[in-house]
Amino acid sequence: MKAASGIGIGVAILAILGGAMIEGTQLGILMNIPALSIVFGGTAGVTLAAVGMETFLKMPKLLIRATSSAGPDLAGRAQELVGFAEQARRDGLLSLESSVGGVEDPYCRRGLQLVVDGTEAGAVRDVMEGEIDAMAARHAVGSGAFEKAGGFAPTIGILGAVLGLMHALGYLDQPAKLGPAIAGAFVATLLGVGVANIVMLPIGNRLQSLSLEEQGLREMTMEGVLAIQAGENPRIVSERLQTFVPPSQRGALAEDGDGGGSTASIDEARKRKAA
Fold first, then answer.
1. HSE-up (13 A, CA, CB side) for residue 231
2. Contact of 131 with 242, CB cutoff 8 Å
3. Percent helix, strand, coil in the chain (nearest 5)?
4. Residue 153 has pLDDT above 80, yes or no
5. Alpha-carbon distance 73 to 61, whole Å?
6. Is the entire prediction scored with pTM above 0.90?
7. Which residues are CB-neighbours of 105 under 8 A, at least 6 positions away?
8. Are 187 and 195 in contact (CB under 8 A)?
9. CB count, 10 Å around CB of 17?
10. 26: helix, coil or strand?
């Protein structure tokens, strides 16, 4: 489900706030401007200092991606590659040249183009593996930014609580004001721990999961491209690619690879991806 992460975060927030309301907590106390400023402003500042401006500015986009992106369509990609294997086995590798331009994924398109250009198998593997490694490194920077923010936020919250308690101590001679001041001081700690464990750390983990899924898709794509280059039987290509696909998604793929309908297989895979 695309919005699973967003739903999970929403459920967590509602459960915590709902439990607080049942206990009789006045949620208005959370609208503590000094605490909000300390936690959100302080966390943003130290995160910026840790990851740099370029990565920091990408965090909103990464947040949206983590809460709205679904996993890759492994079965659709495998089906598309089997279609290319059928076409190449029947009409030759050069026949793929007219179809490569219609491949939406740049990684898959580049691999097939290398094959059409007559690049050696070892060089094709080196290029495609290099792109996987580079992508993994980029993704690690993005997920790491949220993990760093998740580590900073509770500490910033404690700093806010300490500052609040220092202010509260000024009311030792005014008991009526002392209690609310102490309660307000702990709002910063609550916000810091909440932001870290409800938003930052789960988003970082989700980005890691998406990265691993994308790496799996690319590894499958690389194996398919190399199998096409080697001229393997489409049924063997299908069997090999099925190992990358979850069992629940293998039904449609198992029907392909029988040596016929390559164009239909490619078109069907593209329709699945578009859907």
1. 7
2. no
3. 85, 0, 15
4. yes
5. 22
6. no
7. 77, 221
8. no
9. 14
10. coil
